[in-house]
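job 3f2a | input accepted
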Amino acid sequence: MRISVTLFDRSFTVEASGLSYLSIETGSREFTYDRHQWFELPSGEFRHWLLETKRRYQPPLKLDDQLPFAV
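job 3f2a | predicted structure (71 res):
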């Protein structure tokens, strides 16, 4: 089951599959729980749930931006 709602340019999505999987996604964060899957954190710790912060897209730097004082 998946439900998506958008209010005032803010989106909110909830996706669930029984009691074993849940995903909640907003414009800036994403929460995921899966009873059968282990997620590895950068610290090396393992959990059944994961909370991630989304980042805005940043276009790649141009050569002029990388080396502004190069001759």
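job 3f2a | The longest helix spans residues 63-66.
job 3f2a | closed
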